């Protein structure tokens, strides 16, 4: 697999960079260029950003394979060696861009991108090849073998190391069968890929590329999670129930304050009506006060208002008393006393009224 190899190559490159390999100008030997036995990545005398040139010196690389290559953390993006244009590739050494190889031409280990794509590359392209081409046994092939046709297989043994530090081996088998088919290792013929739960002996036999340890095809690593319909139904009901519950709770919560508010509004309304009526009656009183005949003197006007003479024979118009207080006079109290008595006899609300009439 290309991706596996890339990760392993990156790890090896990182360890190489840390191992103090030759930097720019150091001497090296191309004879030491070899594939690492456990990762199949290229191993040289030079650091990850240099390659061993024909004169036996480490020199900066002339091209890069990855958009963000390893070992260039001190470089700005513009300083990185260039990517190769379409139709060319950057070899593992990274010296310069080369033309892609035709069908049957040479290619480096697992470098499917070094092979020219077939004419029908869109149809043949898949996640186990690059644009329909595949590099097997250092030779370019098209991944176009049909079911029943003979095919080429390349089994590669990789050695990995787990977190505990113990090593383990695993085999990656690649072939030139079309997408959905695999090359049977004993008959060397393309077979149809197996569906979920079918018995298998290797990842490539399964369409999902996942042969589980118990020998059955499992889910693909990138298979999306499918939620059953009843989960949607329950979640939907739960959402509706939650909304209804919140609404009901809020309704009960606000019911009390709503009623208090209603009473307040009613009181306010009654108060306003009362004010209005008071203002209207004051207005009527004013109109009737002003509608005296022309030429009426102030004293005559007062007399006409409060003009009932008492038994002593003088008019109260000299010191007018509103009609609603006149009964106090008839009961024998003086005006002053009647006002004081009102102050004493009634609460605070009326005391303001009393002081208005007090002299
Ligand atoms: C990166 O640059 C710093 C300072 O220029 C230098 O000390 C360091 O060794 C460089 N690291 C690498 C990996 O070249
Ligand atoms: C694969 O095809 C795509 C689309 O045609 C192209 O951009 C890409 O460069 C091709 N890759 C290789 C390695 O030829
Ligand atoms: C791999 O290729 C070499 C020649 O390049 C050939 O001799 C050998 O038989 C091939 N191996 C397989 C498994 O095809
Ligand atoms: C194999 O293992 C998977 C998960 O590890 C399990 O779902 C499946 O039922 C197993 N199949 C058999 C036949 O035991």
SSE diagram, text form:
Elements: H1 2-18, E1 34-35, E2 42-43, E3 50-52, E4 58-60, E5 88-89, E6 98-99, H2 121-124, E7 133-136, E8 139-142, E9 153-161, E10 167-175, E11 181-184, E12 189-192, H3 229-290, H4 298-306, H5 326-330, H6 335-345, H7 348-357
Helix pairs in contact: 6-7
The structure holds 2-acetamido-2-deoxy-beta-D-glucopyranose (4 copies).
One 2-acetamido-2-deoxy-beta-D-glucopyranose is lined by residues 137, 152.
Task: Explain what you see.
It is elongated and about 140 Å long. A two-stranded antiparallel sheet has the order 1-2. Strands 3-4 form a two-stranded antiparallel sheet. The chain has a two-stranded antiparallel sheet with strand order 5-6. Among the domains are: 93 residues, no CATH class; 44 residues, no CATH class; 78 residues, no CATH class; 36 residues, no CATH class. The chain has seven helices and twelve strands. It starts with a helix and ends with a helix. The chain is of the alpha+beta class. Helix 6 runs antiparallel to helix 7. Bound molecules: 2-acetamido-2-deoxy-beta-D-glucopyranose (4 copies). The site of one 2-acetamido-2-deoxy-beta-D-glucopyranose has 5 residues, from loops.
């Amino acid at each position: 697999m290309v991706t596996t190899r890339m990760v392993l190559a990156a790890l090896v490159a990182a360890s190489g960079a840390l191992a103090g390999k030759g930097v720019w100008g150091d001497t090296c030997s191309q004879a030491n260029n070899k594939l690492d036995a456990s990762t199949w990545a290229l191993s040289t005398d030079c650091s990850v950003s240099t390659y061993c040139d024909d004169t036996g010196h480490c020199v900066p690389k002339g091209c890069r394979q990855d958009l963000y290559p390893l070992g260039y953390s001190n470089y700005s993006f513009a300083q990185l060696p260039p990517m190769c244009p379409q139709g060319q590739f950057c070899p593992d050494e990274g010296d310069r861009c080369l033309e892609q190889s035709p069908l049957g031409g040479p290619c480096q280990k697992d470098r499917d991108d070094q092979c020219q794509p077939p004419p029908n590359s869109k149809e043949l392209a898949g996640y186990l090849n690059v644009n329909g081409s595949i590099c097997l046994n250092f030779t370019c092939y098209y991944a176009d073998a049909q079911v029943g046709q003979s095919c080429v297989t390349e089994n590669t043994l990789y050695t990995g190391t787990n977190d505990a530090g113990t090593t383990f081996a695993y085999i990656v088998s690649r072939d030139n069968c079309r997408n959905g088919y695999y090359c049977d290792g004993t008959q060397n013929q393309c077979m149809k890929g197996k569906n979920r739960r079918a018995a298998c002996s290797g990842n490539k036999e399964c369409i999902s590329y996942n042969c589980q340890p118990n020998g059955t095809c499992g889910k693909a690593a990138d298979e999306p999670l499918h939620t059953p319909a009843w989960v949607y139904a329950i979640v939907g009901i739960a959402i509706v129930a939650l909304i209804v519950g919140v609404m009901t709770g809020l309704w009960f919560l606000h019911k009390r304050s709503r009623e208090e508010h209603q009473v307040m509004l009613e009181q306010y309304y009654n108060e306003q009506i009362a004010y209005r009526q008071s203002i209207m009656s004051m207005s009527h009183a004013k109109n009737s006060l002003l509608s005296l005949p022309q030429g009426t003197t102030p004293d005559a006007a007062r007399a006409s208002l409060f003009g009932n003479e008492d038994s002593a024979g003088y008019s109260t118009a000299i010191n007018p008393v509103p009609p609603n207080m006149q009964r106090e006079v008839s009961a024998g109290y003086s005006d002053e006393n009647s006002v004081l008595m009102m102050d004493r006899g009634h609460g605070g609300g009326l005391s303001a009224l009393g002081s208005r009439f007090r002299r």
